[in-house]
Amino acid sequence: MSRSRTAVFAAAGSLAGAGVALAGTRALLQRQAAVARRRIGKPLGEDAIDADRVWRRSRGGDPLELLVLGDSIAAGLGALRRKETLGARVAKGLAKRLQRPVRLRTAAVVGAETSMLAAQLGGLPPAYRPDVAVIVVGGNDVTHRVPVRVSIAHLEAAIGCLRTLGAEVVVGTCPDLGALRPVPQPLRALGGRQSRRLATAQAAAALRLGARPVSLRRAVGHLFVSRPDEMFSVDRFHPSALGYRRTAEALLPAVVAAVGHPD
Hints:
The protein is of the alpha/beta class. 52% of the residues lie in helices and 10% in strands.
């Protein structure tokens, strides 16, 4: 057999071996995803508490309009009382800083991917004009293997729409999925890498379009890693009341700055 033909057969064998290895890896990740779904389950259901109302009405004056878009974290799934949801925490903190009431409107939907932001915006009343919007989304894009460029295109469209409405925008970037202990390795490490990659792209997109990004991984990720029993709710996937409190505290300075108030 000629040397060149031997090389061709060797290369073909390597590719076949790589294909088998890739298929084996994919099967392993699929099994681990099934394990994670069983461990997490749905003890919280699929509906977050409705926290939409005017917070701190006693402050007097016209309420500032706060809109929250995104996924289950933005919706507040895992909070046991409405005042513990992410939107309510941000609204209360903002009202305290501004000394005026804040009207919260939550358009976020449990299970939403970034592509669903358009529908959330489309469902708003035609005359509604938010003063500031908070977007927290991306985790489901990672778990559903949505390409980063596709996620970012949808995020940019949502930010552009909000800016057209006259709203300031704060983007809480994708949380670090590497903190989810119910997810076995190596799937957890892979999710962590992908979520960090998406978060970096989200921050860059927000800055390009005049929005304010907040890295939730840097701000609160270490707390979810070091104090999981306190920071996660019963499903060990969504934040607890304390988890939402810390996340809101991380977002609040950017929200205050976005509405032009010196903090």
